[in-house]
Design goal:
Layout (H helix, E strand, L loop, with lengths): L7 E10 L4 E11 L12 H4 L2 E7 L14 E4 L1 H7 L18
Parallel strand pairs: 2-4
Antiparallel strand pairs: 1-2, 1-3
Amino acid sequence: MAGTRHYEVAASGRWWDEDDHRWLPAGEVHAWEPGRNETVCGLSLHRSGLSRFAAVAWTDVLPESGGAADAVRRVCPRCAAAAGRRGADARPAWRRVNPRP
C-alpha cells in the first residue's frame, strides 16, 4: 500500500514572526521531503542556499492559504505541480474536449 507523501518547505529566505515566535519562510519556496537533501524539483538544498522549515507544511506557504505565506514572493511551479497546488491560480485539470472516434 502506498502511503501519502508529506511535503515540507525549503525557502531562499526567512523572517521572524513576532506573534508565533518562530522563523517562517520568505522569498522563493520549494517543497522537500524530510530525509532527502534535495527539493522535489531537484535542487540541492545546500548548494542552492535554501533553508529548511520542518515545522511548516507545504500547504501553509501557498498564497491562497493565508498561513505562513506573508513573505513568500514566488512558489516554485515545478514543486507546486509535484506536491499539489489548489486555488484560484492553479491550472484546471486536463480533459479532452473533442476526442477522436
